[in-house]
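Final report, closing paragraph on structural work. Over the funding period we assembled a curated collection of sequence-structure pairs, and we close with a single example.
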Amino acid sequence: MTAKPQGAWRGVCLHGHFYQPPRENPWLNAVAREPSADPDHDWNRRITNECYRANAAARLVDHENRILALRNNYEWLSFDFGPTLMAWLEKHDPWVMQRLVEADRRSAKRLAGRGNALAQAYHHIILPLANRRDKETQVYWGIAEFRHRYGRNPEGMWLPETAVDHETLTVLAEAGIRFTILAPHQAARWRFVEGESTVWRDVRDGAIPYGRAYRYQCPNGKWIHLFFYNADIARGIAFERLLEHSSRLLSALRAAFADSNALSGEPWLVHAATDGESYGHHFKFGDMALAAAFQVLEKEATTELMNYAAFLDRFPVKAEVEIVPETAWSCAHGVGRWRTDCGCQSGAHPEWHQKWREPLREALDTVRDAMALHFEKQAAAKLRDPWAARNDYIHVLLKGTAEKEPFFQRHQLKPLGPDERRQVLELMEMQREAMAMYTSCGWFFDDVSGLETQMILAHACRAMELARLTGASPLEEIFLRILEKAPSNLPEMGDGAHVVRRLVMPKRISAFNVCAGVAMESLALKAPSRERLHVFRLRPLQERFLCEYPVPCQVGIIDVEDARTERNTRCAYAVVHFGGLDLRVSVKPMKDEAAFDPLVRNLQTCAVEGVASLLRCLDDMSEAEAYSLKDVPEDVRMGIAYRLAEDQLHFYTEFQKRFFSAHQAPLWSLREWGIALPPDIKDSVRGIVERQILDVLKPVLKEENAREGHFRENGAEGTFRRQTFLARLEFLHTALASWGVPQDLPEVHRALTKAVRTELRRILESHGVPLEKLCLLVDIAQALRMGFKDWWIPTLWWELSKRLHHSDLSSHQRSCLRSLDVLSSCAFLS
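Its predicted structure, as stored:
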């Protein structure tokens, strides 16, 4: 940075707002596969790979693109993570969450107890458009979630889309939140609180000086602090490729200091807030540009990397501000983007309208208000204060089943029976869904049929279902009638009501769908019924395999319980497998177990008479619904398909082996005579050799009980057995070239990469540095001429390399680790 004026403090704070809409199917609480995210399962996984995980171990590289070091960007970046995203990370990538917590603690140590993490309102709803009760719950849940993750109270809270009004700031202040961050155009006017120039300055044009903090007085007299970020830097990061290289980002920061309107000697904070996904997802390698910029800034004598809470601690606030209410950072029309056809859209379809936004909000508001009345009426008979209980329900969501009993002890008017408990839990889930259905992304994009809008409509449908289960009159009719006024831009989609019927309701998963899937899985894979499927607990009570002929048939009784609400459904099923992926199951509620034995006898009689009779028997099951594989949860369906496909693939593999063995000599003659082998023959040769290599590697690749001792004699390294083992691998690898076949071996590479990754984790978790198996795996990689492109290997290797400074290593071990450094494109030992 340029030299700063004598006595003037200068700091930099970049803030990342990290968020994804809750993608879970609300009936199953699991994220379905999203084909648009290929090759990843869904967008959460893809963005985690590209951004959330990448920033937790960002690469610093040299001119040859070798990795020199890793940096946890979150230690230097002010950040907030959406609570629903954190819940997903806890389950699917806890390593990232651990790094966030670690970064917050380390930044607090560096900045006198003030960590980098900020809280976020729970469901990312547009708070100015929410009623007071929902505002309070969203803030309370956001604070409770933050405390649960980080072990401390939050000082700052991110407002979704920075959407703000007077009541929202009042709720924050009453909850003990010290500050929030807004866009410059959200300031109406400001003034110094003391001195000669205390006149109000109008800044509705966005010209508020950004480098200081401002205090804001809420209507109730409480104060909260506001920061208004630098719009030029934020725009440059988000849209103008400042992350193309760290030098561009640093230049923009330098320019901001040069152009600041700070008073003489005034401490000045250059800060900007953007979507955190800019750093790696929106801009590939943005995480690396950020890490390199932080490395430079950390060494700057004239500039300090700072966060907002530490800035407030160090420098008294000397200015106050008034806001423009009902504004947000991503709408030029206040908060119109979430309630009207204001003109704001993604730009992907500039000719499309958004007339659907207003009726969508009207439909949701209508059912929300009806469910609120129902909630109050039903819960008041069982709970001391229903709305206080709703606020407190966040602890059940965070801690699970173990928190339910303490929750009831705190709130019940009297001890509740099982049915009463279930109704209370269903009412709480109804309220949770009634807030989730306002997630801001549902209005943000271009059409009512969009994926994000489907998500919020699914939450609404689940909320209305729970309302019915707890005794409310059906709300679906009025909901759909209002949505008929929400026109789609796509003629085939019609309107919002058609979107619900065509795209949303098919996603509904009932206890009967779950039972059908588990029954098919058990019969097709010849395995006992599973005991858990996402939020459903499964208790098989009876399970009978009736016959193998004319077709395999199984019957049973299963209790299917929703773990969230404790609603239990007892199901009887009969399933038949016609071969391949052709399965059929009939499921019915089992009200009387005495009826099960007659059902079994009837099916046995029908089976003797043949397939047609057996099918007729399934169709005639009273109160039963028929299901095929397409009707069951996707992960069950795909699991069955993969397992059955493996059997067919094994048959094909064996055929390839026999063909190659029988015709190897003439095929080799063709090769010697210069006649190119057909591509499908080359693919077969490569597949066969690859499987031979995998067979040789099998004892090493096993995760359990596979140590270098398997290839050592009398403790001596480089023994005859080890040399012949590696020579065998080299021979097989060279054989590919002899056949004119490419030497890339994707299955071997995946297996070896996984083994190295597993071994690095085992070493990091162990006492000492046991390197025997790792060295063998590195020797294998060299024999097969394979490098490691896996993201995890340099990440784990970096952690291990820091431990080696105090280790007594043999020359062979040191050589092995130098090879690992090269194979991983790293320079940790240089």
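Residues 634-672 form the longest helix (39 residues). The longest strand covers residues 536-547. We thank the funder for supporting this effort.
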